[in-house]
Specification:
- The chain has a three-stranded mixed beta sheet.
- It is about 25% helix and about 20% strand.
- It is α+β, with helices and mostly antiparallel strands.
- The chain has one domain: Irregular (HU Protein, Chain A), CATH 4.10.520.
Length: about 180
């Protein structure tokens, strides 16, 4: 189940100022060890250690292939590719262009494929407002319902790590939503 909190847009310069938007509550980040343990529990013939080794090698190989200018597609997950962060303003012509002046860096991009596409996730997702589960509203005040204990993990804190606000290619289903919350 995906739990969410509501936050108001606080940027008065935007047409959506004061409107509420849902943000996912991420209760935990699963690392490679946890993922390997979870995968091993699904009646696979591979041990947790073998799975962890394969995941580690896969990440290294994807890194190498991306730096060779190739895209990597993992069916039902994503197509991984490299994006270029261009400097603002661009170059007037090819002679004025230089890597040092016009390229700020590179970033990882990931585009969902198969069951991870938005339509596939939408069909399988169950959403529930976090305040209904924790008794704490998105502003951190008690709603009077529930026990008043914070069992929802990061319900009142920052959700930046879960909304794709990083340069490592995180994508919140369409990139940056442009909300200044």
């Amino acid at each position: 189940m995906i739990r969410y909190i509501l936050k108001k847009c606080k940027n008065a310069r935007q047409a959506i100022f004061g409107k509420l938007f849902a943000y996912p509550v991420i209760e935990e980040t699963v690392n490679e060890d946890d993922l390997a343990e979870h995968m091993a529990s699904h009646n696979t013939p591979f041990s947790q250690g073998a799975i962890k080794g394969m995941l580690t090698d896969m990440v290294q190989c994807i890194h190498e292939l991306l730096l060779e200018g190739k895209n990597v597609k993992i069916n039902n997950l994503a197509i991984f590719s490299i994006g270029i962060k261009n400097a603002k303003g661009g170059a007037e012509n090819e002679e004025d262009f230089s890597v040092q002046k016009n390229i700020q860096g590179v970033k990882l991009r990931a585009r969902a494929t198969g069951i991870m596409l938005a339509k596939g996730l939408k069909l399988n997702a169950t959403l529930k407002k976090a305040v209904a589960l924790t008794g704490v509203s998105s502003t951190g005040t008690s709603s009077g319902s529930g026990t008043g204990t914070n069992t929802g993990g990061n319900t009142g804190g920052s959700t930046g790590g879960s909304t794709g606000g990083n340069d490592s290619g995180g994508d919140n289903g369409g990139g940056d939503d442009g909300l200044d919350i």
